[in-house]
Amino acid sequence: MTTSEWPLWEVFVRSRRGLSHTHAGSLHAPDAEMALRNARDLYTRRSEGVSIWVVPSSAITASSPDERDPFFEPAADKPYRHPTFYEVPEGVQHL
Amino acid sequence: MTTLLPEKDRGGGPGAHEEAGQEAYQEAFDAAIAADERIEPRDWMPDAYRATLVRQIAQHAHSEIIGMQPEANWITRAPSLRRKAILMAKVQDEAGHGLYLYSAAETLGVGRDELLDKLHSGRQKYSSIFNYPTLTWADVGAIGWLVDGAAITNQVPLCRCSYGPYARAMVRVCKEESFHQRQGYELLLALSRGTEAQHAMAQDAVDRWWWPSLMMFGPPDDASKHSAQSMAWKIKRHSNDELRQRFVDICVPQAESLGLTLPDPLLRWNEERGHYDFGPIDWSEFHEVLRGNGPCNEQRLDRRRRAHEQGAWVREAAAAYARKHGEQDGDGRTAA
After folding, report:
1. Where are the domains of chain A?
2. According to the lineage, what is the superkingdom (chain A) (predicted)?
3. Does the CB of A83 have a partner CB in chain B at under 8 Å?
4. A14 touches chain B (CB under 8 A)
5. B318:A3 CB<8 A
6. What residue spans define the domains of chain B?
7. Shortest CB distance from A34 goes to which of B2, B96, B318?
8. Are B28 and B46 in contact (CB under 8 A)?
9. Can you tell me the distance from the alpha carbon of B17 to that of B13, in angstroms, rounded to the nearest whole number?
10. How far apart are CA B159 and CA B167, in angstroms?
11. pLDDT 10s per residue in chain B (336 long)?
């Protein structure tokens, strides 16, 4: 039995209350409980977190880097979704 | 240090594509490097870029975990509880740094076991600095000040390395290293200002660690076979000699403030260059240690192999426990 037979986990850490969990890194562990303990030792040795999520890497579905352009393309030609698209006369406030 | 391992049938890989496709991938890669963008694990990358990174990150990871040994040697004999707690935290950090780096290497498609196996069989190297012995307590200080100081000088530019997972690992490592360097400096200062014998012990440690620390930057630029390509790929941002000079310039005034001298009679300020000149490095020693003939090469690897073998039952037990309880744990805590 070797570590490579231990699954890979992705670690997400909430640095303080009010903030989202952020991806911190990955680690190997035999089960979720050990993954949490290892994550605490590896990623929060200096009080970097108040909450940790561990997720099996195999459970993550990712967009392919190859499809990057066509996949995200629908957003590219819609500048009107940004407030800076609109012209506002000089002096108008609170808009 | 990153999200996903590259998939076996990597979407971006040219394997399934014809030659024309390969050229387009190469162009996209070159453009990303030129624009100073980061390469991420599932991006297409040239085989040689991948191999260079695996070699460098693996060697870096191995250095972190082998580097635990010379300092751990003094944990049981630390002169106070304060020093002992600090040293334990530092050695634990080195283990952590090794793990960040192994994770980064794994994003390139190599397995953790494969890497450890190559370390244990001597097919992959670690920094030759760790083949020197820690003879006195002052060596713990000299390692923190000089060895970690040299490592930081090397690693700060690596935070901007073109490979995303390596760069991110380096950001975390650098944040933690600065405590390592400071505790070493403080330790040496305490000895230097102590009794005559303590001062002599600090000076002896600095005398022994100075030259090996300068060798940590690698061979001179004209003899460094990987440097040019690594700089073109923006894995490396500065040449070996440039970083070595930067380190010398930083250390000279620090040595003065410690009340210690550096063992180089040719060390002097060069007004014209705006840098310190220093004496020639004995590269034959470097190559001897690299070849395995340093004072501790055998001991370090033996110890590492033994630790791995003796930990096997723990890994097996944890895996057996996970298998046994795996089916029953359907009710995991919800993420919130």
Report:
1. 1-61
2. Bacteria
3. no
4. no
5. no
6. 28-287
7. B318
8. no
9. 8
10. 4
11. 444 444 444 444 444 445 667 888 999 999 999 999 999 999 999 999 999 999 999 999 999 999 999 999 999 999 999 999 999 999 999 999 999 999 999 999 999 999 999 999 999 999 999 999 999 999 999 999 999 999 999 999 999 999 999 999 999 999 999 899 999 999 999 999 999 999 999 999 999 999 999 999 999 998 888 888 999 999 999 999 999 999 999 999 999 999 999 999 999 999 999 999 999 999 999 999 988 899 999 999 999 999 999 999 999 999 999 989 875 554 455 555
Q: Which residues in chain B have their CB less than 8 angstroms from residue A46's CB?
A: 176
Q: Which H or E run contains A14?
A: strand A8-14
Residues B95 and B176: beta-carbon distance below 8 Å: no
DSSP letters for B140-154 = HHHIIIIIHHHHHHH
Give chain B positions within 8 Å (CB) of A61.
none
Report CB contact under 8 Å: B329, A23. no
Please check whether residue B264 is in contact with residue B278, taking contact to mean a CB–CB distance below 8 angstroms: yes
CB B215 within 8 A of CB B286: yes
Longest CA–CA separation in chain B, Å: 73
C-beta atoms of A30 and B321 within 8 A: yes
Pick the residue from chain A with its C-alpha nearest to B40.
Answer: A65
Across chain B, the runs of DSSP E, i.e. the strands, are: 268-270, 275-277
Which is nearest to B128 in space by CA: B198, B66, B82?
Answer: B66
> Which CATH fold topology does A1-61 show?
Ubiquitin-like (UB roll) (3.10.20)
The neighbouring-strand residues paired with B325 are: none
A26 to chain B, any CB pair closer than 8 A? The answer is yes
| Number of C-beta neighbours around residue B249 at 10 A | 14
Residue B24 burial (CB count, 10 A): 12
The answer to whether the Cβ–Cβ distance between A32 and B1 falls below 8 Å is no
- The reply to whether A8 touches chain B by the CB within 8 Å rule is yes
Residue of chain A with shortest Cα separation from B308: A2
CATH code for residues B28-287 = 1.20.1260.10
Pairing of strands B275-277, A51-56: unpaired
Q: Integer distance in angstroms from the first to the last C-alpha of chain A?
A: 63
